[in-house]
What we know:
Blueprint: E1 2-6, H1 14-28, E2 32-37, H2 45-53, E3 74-77, E4 94-97, H3 100-107, E5 115-121, H4 128-134, E6 140-144, H5 152-155
Parallel strand pairs: 1-2, 1-4, 2-3, 4-5, 5-6
Amino acid sequence: MKITFILPVANLSGGIKVVGIYARELAKRGHEVVLMSTPLPDMRLRSKVKSLLTGRGWPSSKQPESHLDGLGLDHRVLERWRPVTDADVPDADVAIATWWETAEWVSALSGSKGAIVYFIQYQKDTAIHKVTCTLAVASLFYCNSNKHQSVFRTFQQK
């Protein structure tokens, strides 16, 4: 299967780490996996000056370190921060949104980009999980709790 994960900015957060683990394991099973992410959004000049004046220095526009670094996966970062579009995403069997913001982007993709999956991780003890898990607008909705239930059951057979 050809599987595309759509992520926000790739960094050292736990959510990105979990997506990296799933992507790596799917690739090990022979699936073609692509990870798409955005770079950091551009800071306004006012925010840059404020950072300098408050002693934090001039902010770097360098892409942050990520749990995806060194995994040997096809990780593509957009040229600037913006929603992911059809032109960015390769044709695939499955397109997976991994964040509330990417869910909207993935829902706008054409059918050639794959079946839409919402892979949403949340803290069970937060109120937002009830809202997040009931807003399914795609053909398949997958909700992952702290127990990290395996999405591999869906993709075990190639």
